[in-house]
C-alpha cells in the first residue's frame, strides 16, 4: 500500500510538534526542579570595594537574610581594584549558575564613560536581579581644617588649592566622581589622593593625613554624629536628610544643581537561568523587608528601594537611564579615569 506524500508530510509535522512539545515540557520540568533545589551550596556575593567601605556594609547587611531565605550561606567577597571594574569583569567570566553574583553601586553606570577600554558592557553582559537602595553623600574635612562653614571652605580652597588634598576611594569610585564634580563647580583644582577603598580614605581623613573627602552616608553618618573626628560641610542631595536635618545641602549653599545620590543593584552573569534569577530576586526582596536591615539602613541615612524597583526590569531601566545621564555629566565635568 502506497502512502501519499501529503500524509507523510503531515506525520512528519506531527512528529516535530510532539518533539518540540516534549522538549518544552522537559525544560519546564528542569526549570521547576532547579527552582526547587537551587541553591545546593553557598552563594558568593562579590563586592568591588574594600571591606568596611559603604558597599561592603550594605552587602553584609543583606547577606544574612538572603542566606536565610535561600537556605545557604551568602558569602561576601571583596574583589578590589581598577576603580571597581575588576569585580564586574570577574562576574562576566563566572559560570552563569547563580552561585557568583555582584552588588555594585552607580559605578556600573559611570564606568562606560570613565574608561576607554572596559572589559564588559553593563547593558549587555549581565542578568539583573534588582535595585537595592539609594545612598546620599556628604562632604567632610579633617577635624582641624581651618574652615568651619561652607563659605569659609570655598574661600579657603580657592586661596590654597595648591596645598589642599582631596581623598577618594580610588579611581572610578563614586567618591572620586563626587570630588571631581565639587572641584568643577567650585572652580578649583586640588591635590587628589586616591585610596584602595573608602575605609582607608576615611581613616586617613580622621587621622589628619588628608583634608577633604566626599563619601556615602553609610560610612560618614556615624562620624558626623560623633562630632569629634571630622567636620561636615554639606550633603550632596537636593533635599536635607531627616537624620541630619541641621546639615545644609551643597545646592542651597551655592553649588546649584549639585546632586549625587548613590544607588546600588545586584547582578548575575549573562545566561543565568530565569528560575535562579527569580530565586535571587525573592531573596533580595526578603532582605530589604527585614526589620534589622531596615533599621540599620535608616540609621545610615539611606533609603531601601520600593518593591517596583527591586526587580530585574526595575534595575535594567534605571541602569539604562543612569548610563545616559552620567555620560553627559562626566563629559561636562571633564572627569576621566584614564
Automatic annotation (TrEMBL):
Keyword Signal: yes
Pfam families associated with the record: TctC (PF03401)
Entry superkingdom: Bacteria
Cleavable signal peptide: 1-35
Gene3D superfamilies listed in its UniProt record: Bordetella uptake gene, domain 1, Periplasmic binding protein-like II
Keyword Signal listed: yes
Record key words, sorted: Signal
Family: Belongs to the UPF0065 (bug) family.
Entry-linked PANTHER family: BLR1237 PROTEIN, TRICARBOXYLATE-BINDING PROTEIN
Name this protein carries in UniProt: Tripartite tricarboxylate transporter substrate binding protein BugD
Organism annotation: Comamonas terrae
